Amino acid sequence: MDESLKLKIGKSAASIKDEIIGIRRHLHRYPELSCLEVKTAEFICQKLDVYGIRYQKGIAGTGVVGFIEGRNPSARCIALRADMDALPVTEISLTEYSSTIPGVMHACGHDVHMACLLGAAKILTGLTSAFTGTVKLIFQPSEETFPGGAIAMIEAGVLENPAPGFVIGQHVINNLDAGEIGLKPGPYMASTDEIYITVKGKGGHAATPNQVIDPVLIASHIVVALQQIVSRNADPVMPTVISFGKIMGNGRTNVIPDEVMLDGTVRTYNETWRKEVHERIRKMAVSIASGMGGSCDVRIAPGYPFVHNDPDLTLRLETLAREYLGTDKVKTLEPRMTAEDFAYYATKVPSCLYRLGIRNQSRGINSNLHTATFDVDEDSIATGMEMLAWFTINLLSQENPSR
Question: Which of 32, 91, 378, 386 is catalytic?
Answer without folding.
Answer: 378
